[in-house]
Amino acid sequence: MSSQEFSEKSLPSEQDTAHGTAVAENPFADPGLPPHKPRIQDLDERAAKRSERTVALLFTTSMLATVAFIASFVIFPVDKIVYVWPLGHVSATNLSLGLTLGIALFCIGAGAVHWARTLMSDEEVADDRHPIEAAPDVKAKVMADFAAGAEESALGRRKLIRNTMFGALAMVPLSGIVLLRELGPLPEKKLFHTSWAKGKQLINMNTMEPLRPEDVTVGSLTFAMPEGLSEEDHDFNTKIAKDALMIVRLQPEDIKDKRELEWSHQGIVAFSKICTHVGCPISLYEQQTHHVLCPCHQSTFDLSDGARVIFGPAGHALPQLRIGVNDKGNLEALGDFEEPVGPAFWERG
Question: For bias kind Polar residues, which ranges apply (predicted)?
């Protein structure tokens, strides 16, 4: 059979076209909706009660998981590591927070799905398409359908589900609120104080030995840290970022600032090494001018005049540490800095 003959036989005949066969008029017949089969919950109120208790249990579990999330956040330190098979060594905080939050969200979803599949109406309703613009009768129908859906959900009658669902939904956002705490540590008074205190000796950061006045010569620059601080400490970098000192010896007659002279010892002055612009360590000293220069943005401070800013973007002078000599002949601090070290911050005022 040729392709032309096959094509001609496949075309509808004039008689079929004239009478309009069912195939030509509606090639995709509407199969209609399958007959509705009632669920066991529709027939047995005891089964419905069991489903209700299951949904309530899931919502209650979600609430307990949220409480466990908050408790885990408070109990476990950030650096605590635990061994969990087969994951190996993991962060206790990350594991507990992820597990409890996952359970809380899963139980809400599972409870909602089980509620819809076992207790809400499962009858399928065909709704014809309609124009985008809603007519008044359509709006009335929508409101009627909403009221019918609310009635069929049995939210008013099944108070146990309603109350536990509202409780779960109300408590889950607490997880997000608690996580806001982790946006950054609360500064409290940490930014106002350093490790320096009355009686703490100045330790040379090169020799790790206590500094004596005779160790500091005129025109030299020495770096020091407080006694008791060790590079082996896990928080050494955090502390040294505030504790680092510049030790310079000037001729007493070259010191212009009265308070600087009173807080010095035989011309030895101690200033914070941390630049007040963005916190870079200062290490460039001009012996003849008594100026120190920050290598990051060229802020320049005059160590003979209270370490005031004479050039650059720094906002205020370097804080000075009051020093003296103990009974061993070593340099020691006579207290902490009287103002915060490093860059300005919003709590400073």
Answer: 1-15
